[in-house]
């Protein structure tokens, strides 16, 4: 009986630990575009990397601000542009260490000249950048810069305005 209880406790601890590690899915650019083009809710897509200081500075603003719009079903998708060596463990560990709660995907692409213009023609490859899409409104706006918290809130209001 003691062995069964010990095993049950061990399994519980293992699954609790696993549940806290973010799952990072690998996507190609065409799959990411499909996600963006078929979303049924307002979507904020933030492109970032763990080595990008301005990216890391703005992600907490994004998570907090998007959560404030949860009643309007706004979703945040963090798209990691980290190096292949960091996928998935390095990105997941970084996200866990920083308490990121949003969905994260890793863009499995190396040619920015190919994938950047598929997101927006004005994207030159620099990060952070953000794309906001609201299919119901026909709204699509690209931001080729860091978005300070107050500006982000203003842009989220525009994204969700009736």
Automatic annotation (TrEMBL):
Residues 3-158 form the Thioredoxin domain. GO terms for molecular function: antioxidant activity; oxidoreductase activity. Gene3D superfamilies: Glutaredoxin. This is AhpC/TSA family protein. The keyword Signal applies. Keywords: Signal. PANTHER family: THIOL:DISULFIDE INTERCHANGE PROTEIN DSBE, THIOREDOXIN-LIKE PROTEIN HI_1115. PROSITE patterns: THIOREDOXIN_2 (PS51352). InterPro entries: AhpC/TSA (IPR000866), Thioredoxin-like_sf (IPR036249), Thioredoxin_domain (IPR013766), Thioredoxin_ResA/DsbE_sf (IPR050553). Residues 1-19 form the signal peptide.
């Amino acid at each position: 009986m003691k062995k069964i209880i010990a095993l049950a406790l061990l399994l519980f601890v293992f699954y609790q630990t696993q549940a806290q590690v973010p799952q990072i899915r690998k996507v190609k650019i065409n799959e990411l575009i499909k996600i963006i083009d078929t979303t049924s809710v307002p979507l904020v897509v933030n492109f970032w990397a763990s080595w990008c200081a301005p990216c890391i500075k703005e992600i907490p603003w994004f998570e907090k601000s998007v959560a404030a719009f949860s009643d309007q079903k706004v979703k945040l998708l963090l798209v990691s542009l980290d190096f292949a060596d960091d996928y998935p463990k390095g990105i997941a560990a970084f996200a866990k260490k920083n308490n990121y709660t949003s969905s994260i995907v890793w863009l499995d692409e190396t040619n920015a000249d190919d994938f950047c213009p598929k997101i927006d023609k004005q994207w030159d490859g620099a990060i952070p950048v953000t794309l906001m899409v609201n299919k119901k409104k026909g709204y699509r706006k690209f931001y080729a810069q860091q978005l300070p918290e107050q500006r982000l809130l203003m842009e989220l209001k525009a994204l969700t305005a009736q």
